[in-house]
């Protein structure tokens, strides 16, 4: 009895708890609903933060992690369901006991699930590094393969394919084309997949082990994870290279023996599969680096033959060299002086292009009388030809920029913006606005590229010099420039008297010796002390005092690889700066800035950059810089005891300023202090010359009513949350959300209207009362004429992008047709609950060109969207559309409603979580043409039973990837042929490489039509996961299966790799099914 009593007591306790819980759902019904609302708001905020982070990492070229993508998708689904639930609750007027219980219980469970989702969304990182760039991403030079070149390349390819050769040395004089050839070889072997990995690093005359290691690591996608020591990096690199069976390591421009072990390159017996290929000007370098003679191949590059040289000269100088016997004779003399060296021929040819006979004669005389210069490893012919190319540059500006670039280290990516800011400081660009100087610098650099004196850089908006060209520039400036850069040996300063003659002094990426007590530099105009290992080394007061003529001073620290501004700040502001009264450009980036009083005396200063610096005191003295034209405070921060970097009314006093940069490259929410929190935007009003401005503004409440931004040429402005922190030029982010709840009315957007005609990137979110963009927000048909990207989200009342019925457009002639959205390439709309279509009504002729350049179209969480292409003709308006993504649009029942709905250039179609989607097409499939489609991905579309009929599938000739995932009712990809349809016997998916079928519980096969046979000549990968009813792949497999799927050697079924080895693919699927049945019976 006691036992029974105990049991009944426990049961009673459970019953009481259960009853209390159920009554609790009723009693706390309203509280549960309110809790759910709050959790939804919190999750929406987290979702926006994650999206902002993913947008930033995408811009950085990183790849979003799968768990983040899965979380985002799950969060969107949960938010969508919760929003629907809350809307349904609001519509219920009377609740009985059962309804209160049911809805209260659902609200509580959803709130708990969303709270968990929010915690799951707290990611340490949202992305992985993108696939390494590889040699295919290297910029290609203009490369002509001559017979002599072809012979050398064939020898190199033979050595690379020879298992017994593990070291290949390529030598030849400077300018003969070694680097160009090995880059072409590298691309060829990577395309032919001769090696598992192909990497390349430039060594240069001054060896930097760290730089070589970083170049190789980048191509391998290896992250050193802040490994500081040389040995640590070498160990990581050694391990990574040994993981590859066959690796080709190319080391370009080696001058002395390089110890591969120090770098971390396994070689010889250390890793038989690792081949080394080097380029050098010295054969002896090849000899000393080779491990064994029998496994070494040394190849010399010879000069071009006479006919080859003539062809190359003609290609670069033009047909004019054969215009007359006299010109022909003079040109042949010049060609002979070039000595068969490609670099010499190309640069001379480009220099002489378009010149008359007398200039050709003068050039021939100059080449003949040119004095040889003793530059190690350089042929005299190369020097005199490059010197001639320099002499024939058209103006002083171009000559100056060319020579000035030798102040940077060898193989350095020289930022264009540095050349602009330096050039202004040195008076190269006089009496022009900064933007005009920028355009002028770009024009000069392009001319130098066309002259083959400059090279294209891998880095955006940068330029490079060939090492041979740089050597010539250094030789020309040897009496003017003192240069110790890139690790060149520099242990003590030269004699002070010897330094007096120099106009420029450059020490970069080096170790600065201790400064003397005083200096006398009567002619010095340029002082570059940047990116040095000891930039914080103090300068005695007498050093800067002796530089009265200095116009340009750059004393910047190195940029850090640490994330989010964790910089090792360098130096302190030197009090003796006040002596530099002629200074026009001052660059102090990644600096620790305290008392700025010394700046106040720099009355000639025009360019001032503190980018990436930390301020320990307010920058009061900036207000005294009355000549200032550019102020760069991007990425700056300040100590927590300060309110702002800039006190009030500092900016408003800079009446001559043209460009003002205050952007933050990292999310502000990671900072405890905001550097421009107290900045009053109205301080821009007195700046009549302002043409460029960047800033992140907390929200619209920081912008007073009636304020308008000036008519800027260049801008990056983010108001409110959700900005893209590495946004491109002429970007606007406008978020009306204030304190995570209140949305501002669209009337507040008047402040940005002057910027719209030049806006390239526009992001618009959380604006109250916004029904359409045109004409409610913008009525001028030319306002967004240059817009390239438009992102609209969380505007709950937005119904259309363009309401043509509401828009009263003034008539135009054909010559005056409107430019509304004619440059738009990307359009993304998300979380727009009222959106019905992009356009309402037919677009009139005046705006019929809208969206004709659109490349990407994305719909997300648009619950009322029932027609993707309503009122549009994709054959006309969307004729360049390449990518279409549609997700969580639950009113959609089809994608293509009529034959014109298939954009002719569509190559990627992704459909996700379209719960009412019954078919891809509504129109007759005989007319549906997706002939350029390459990627088709369909996830969680549970009403779909088949994807396409065979009649449409035969027009999928370019399809390369097919992914079907979580479509519960899907029975087959292709439907059986129906009576009345066009009869097809054979289907060839000629380019399909990958087929993925995942979580399709009702799928019976790819196609179950016995009247069809298939061929997949390119199919390499098939993955089938959790498709329990799939007993066959296709109903009929071609009798000669080797010709049907010649590249398919293996399929993956439920994570198990199954080798085909001649087995019918249907038998594999049937065997798998039987095995499952047997296991189940057992």
TrEMBL record:
The keyword Nucleotide-binding applies. Residues 151-317 form the NB-ARC domain. Keywords: ATP-binding, Leucine-rich repeat, Nucleotide-binding, Plant defense, Repeat. InterPro entries: Apaf_helical (IPR042197), At4g27190-like_LRR (IPR057135), LRR_dom_sf (IPR032675), NB-ARC (IPR002182), P-loop_NTPase (IPR027417), Plant_NBS-LRR (IPR050905), WH-like_DNA-bd_sf (IPR036388). It comes from the Eukaryota. The keyword Cell membrane does not apply. Residues 837-967 form the Disease resistance protein At4g27190-like leucine-rich repeats domain. Belongs to the disease resistance NB-LRR family. This is NB-ARC domain-containing protein.
